[in-house]
Amino acid sequence: MPSRTPSLRRTPRAPLQLTIGVCTPIMEDKPSHWVLMLADRDAEYATWYHVVGGPGLASPWKLDISEGRLNSWSVNNRYYVAEIPAKHRRKVKASAKKVPGRFCQGWVVDVIGDLEKDFVVPVGTQNDIAKLMEADPYYGDAPPKVEKRQYLHEYFDAKKMFDWIDKHCFTKLLSPY
């Protein structure tokens, strides 16, 4: 079995760095895009958690979880959030999935608030990060688009079903043959 070098091995007890990547806005008058980044200390790559889509792109908000460079060309600044125990890696992912999509900066603040409730980040972190937010371009607009899902009960017609049961089942049950 080939051995792995110590630098490639992930130390299970080593703390993780939770930061916010601030991406350069595509247009001058637009707010910057925020990405929640979770990485091992001194790592080159991080797990990126961010929402994409929304009213500006005429599409539903969608969570994107991917691996990206910690010092990416698109990230022009990073805010330190907290150093967290490695055992809380799954809690970060769970919070990212649980918080509904909206303007990226507000979404990041909401995720940090959820992590604060779970005692993953220190109390007061959400408040500190919220002070860094730029104006929400969608504030006051219609609520974010949510993907419409088709459910089975939307196609279910109870009257038709009971009529069919009455015609095909009860008549045969009551029949002497």
From TrEMBL:
Taxonomy, superkingdom: Eukaryota
Protein name: Uncharacterized protein
